[in-house]
Write the structure tokens for this entry.
Amino acid sequence: MDSQHSDRFHEQSEAGIEYKTFAGVLEASQRAGKEQGGAQLDAAYIISKLEDVCSKRVQQFELRKNAGTRFQLSSTEEEHKLWQSESHTWLLLETLFNAFERQKPFSDKGPEALEWSDLDLIEHLHSTDSNFKHHSAVKSWLEVIAPVNITHIGTKRISPSAKPAGTLFSQPATTSTQTNYQDPDATTRDGVKLDEYNQRVEQGLLQAVWEYIRRGQIQEAKEACEKAGEPWRAESISGGDLYSVSTAFTDPKYDRLDGPIGNKTRGLWKGTCYALAKETTADQYERAIYGALCGDVQSVLPVCSSWEDHAWVRYNALVESMVEDRLSNFNRGGRSKTLPIPTTTVSNAKDIFDSIGNSDDQQLRNDSKDMFKTIQTSIILGQTDQMLTKMAREAKGASNNGAPLRPHMLRFMAHFVLLLRAKNFNVPKADGDFFIKSYVDFLISKRQYNIAPLYASFLPRQLQIETCSAYLKTIDGSKKERQGYLANIRKHGLDLHSILTATVDGLLEKNKSVSEGGDVKAGLKSSISAPTTAVESAQIKSLEWLTFETPQYLECLHRSNSLIRQYLAVGRLNAAFALYKSLPEDIAQFGPMGAMPTSLRQEHIYYGDLFAARMVLEQWRSLLKAQPKLGTSRTDELAWGMQFKKLAPATAAELEGLLRSKWLFDCILLGDDVRGQQLRKLRQIYLSELALNLHEVYFQSRETLPEFLEKSVEMANLIAAERDQEVPLHKELQDNGRLQELLSQIRLSSLELIDLNRSPFAY
């Protein structure tokens, strides 16, 4: 197998596994919920598990990418981005869920808020202000999903040729005497520059510190400065720590002493950071570091390269402004006229995404329109209902134009809708059902029959029936194989009875008979065992879906009787017989709660009587045809004669018994006009045929059984007799246009009796 085919094989295999993996998570949550008698789905469990599944897939793609095997030459890179975006989206949901439902309650610090520390005030704000909690959670999420690509941090060096006083710096050309530049402010204050190597090291450090801060890893940023030999920079970053009074841990291993921590003059520190951020001669990453620390936006934007970066810098400014407002309300820190702190125009989340979406940067505007970015934005803004309606409308339009929603996105949307519903969010019913049903249809198209019922169980009853019957109609295996597909439908509590009924009705509609205008007489001449057509075979096989369990017998009998009526009406006695044989022997004995309507049961029994009579008739015809010729041994003649003398009376009795019965007559019910008309027509056709068959048996058996000739004439009495409430047989034959045909046959019998000097009226 070449590498291209191998990659394609692995992608397809992984896709199938992923469908099952997602379904396994959903089913495990559903099962646990039912066992505990609580909610149907545990949203927190599902979000965490699905995020884990997606992040592992991202790792797999990154390993393949690093290996460099066909990553850029196929759709692998795009698929990688999809998995990464989905992972980020589940993580956003998990972050918000944890922020609002799993956060520890605020520890009461006492009634006097003025005595609380700065840290206490902000913790209380986080606990009581849902907006601050929400913005902080989104900011945290944007930090976690930032790419891990920390720049390598080098070590500055002193050139061996430089004099000790010169140390790390190169001197301005205008300086006539060498100045000792040892302090870190030298480059800004005096305009000197580091040598080329140390400039690169400095830029690398600044970029690394920015990347740490962008990811919310303040401690790592300080450690990077320490390792680079710039402890002063680490201290400058520490100024943002909120002031508090710590209590030592009782466990010595934590090694924390009692006393104040953090910065009591945080406002002054922020003003200093803001001044540094506005310093146009400073490196852009240094400006971004201090701009981010103080909550400025403009100084950080030049180093922002992604949608996430732009969202983070604005959320960072929003959170910092809310922190500052909170502290100012309690006269903490305070703003300095000499060193002002940033003021942001961002007042809410909507402003943030509007500013990004309306950016002058075309690439940023395009990124804002990415489907997963749109979903993430709607989650953050609490506008998932509007987003679902819009996406459903667009997906339906695209599908109509031959471009349905991509499988990856379809899978996400189905699970997203289920989770929103589990958390009682407002989900437009029709739009939510659209995504779930579309996913079920997709699973069916991929022959994922074992997991499709799980998702169908979340749909309204009618859609459950439509979706499950849709794939059952495509299964054309053996009866045993088809029975196996019903286990999962039953397992997930779906209406199996209605699904199977819809399946059969759909198949019968698909395989409609086209022989309604056939020649009935010609059909009746065929053997009852003649092969069925492909359409008839498909119709007969479709009914097997209703024969697997006795509760379906009633629906099966309704449809089998109806189909037999259709076959018999056009003379397809063989098809009717094939259908009859395919049914369970006890089909007419069981129904819902053990009750089977008498009319349905009796109709089925009558068809069995007809087929039994026809079978014995065909046996008699075969035996008649096998009558020994002249010259045959006497033994063979005697053997045949004994067999014929036994079979002919049995055949005549079978036929006459059926003619004398109420065949189908007592199945005709008031109010059931269509069925009643069909049954009356069948009586006309088959009672006429049976009468002619009976005469045939009598007349053709006369040589072996001479008394049968008289019986063939006596049939006139049977045909002419009145029958209580039933229609007389002569009327049935007359309405079917076969009375004259039978009378002609009886006339021949009479003439032959006369020729034999046996008057037909002598009896």
Q: What stands out?
A: The longest strand covers residues 244-246. The CA atoms of residues 305 and 364 lie 9 Å apart. DSSP finds 33 helices and four strands in the chain. The radius of gyration is 45 Å.
